[in-house]
Design goal:
Order of helices and strands: HEEHHHEEHEH
InterPro entries: GlcG_carb_metab_protein, PduO/GlcC-like, PduO/GlcC-like_sf
Strand content: 15-25%
Radius of gyration: 14 Å
Mean pLDDT: 94
Largest sheet: 5 strands, antiparallel
Structural class: alpha+beta
Strand order of the largest sheet: 2-1-4-3-5
Number of strands: 5
Number of domains: 1
Organism: Novosphingobium aerophilum
Distance between the termini: 23 Å
Helix content: 40-55%
Protein name: Heme-binding protein
CATH class: Alpha Beta
Number of helices: 6
CATH superfamily: Haem-degrading domain
Pfam families: HbpS-like
Shape: globular
Length: about 150
């Protein structure tokens, strides 16, 4: 199994924020977690609102804990709300069902961490996270998204 390095995490953050600036996005918070859910790096841009880093963390933790990007989780939650409300209660609210939480995989397809981004629309958050992951040379996403 590949271990996520600090250099990779920093590259993810740098590129994620550069992508956000190139899009004129609202100020973002970015969290990069390893496969165990431990923070490797995080950043909050000037002007990002108070809760953004916590929402970014909830997106990344949710993706790791459920084994799927938060876009997929949001789609699943829409069709099975009772279950996903129970999940949120079980994890004491540390999950966000909005795009912007993206799994990272090594070349063998093993999950090595997740990126959580919050601050703009879910679509923009997710696109910026994906740009950062690509810049670090990692695979991304939930398996069914690649199919």
């Amino acid at each position: 199994m590949t271990i996520l390095s600090l250099a990779q995490a920093q590259a993810i953050i740098t590129t994620t924020l550069a992508e956000a600036r190139s899009r004129g996005a609202q100020p973002l918070a970015v969290v990069v977690l390893d496969a165990g859910g431990h923070p490797v790096a995080l950043a909050r841009e000037d002007g990002a609102t108070f809760f953004r880093h916590r929402i970014a963390m909830a997106k990344a933790i949710g993706a790791l804990g459920m084994g799927a990007d938060t876009r997929v989780l949001a789609q699943r939650a829409a069709t099975n709300p009772a279950f996903f409300q129970a999940v949120a209660a079980t994890v004491e609210g540390q999950i966000a069902y909005s795009p912007g939480g993206v799994l990272m995989r090594d070349a063998a397809g093993q999950v090595i961490g997740a990126v959580g981004v919050s601050g703009d629309t879910g679509d923009c958050d997710e696109d910026c996270a994906r740009a950062g992951i690509r810049a670090a040379g990692l695979e991304q996403g939930t398996p069914e998204q690649a199919a």
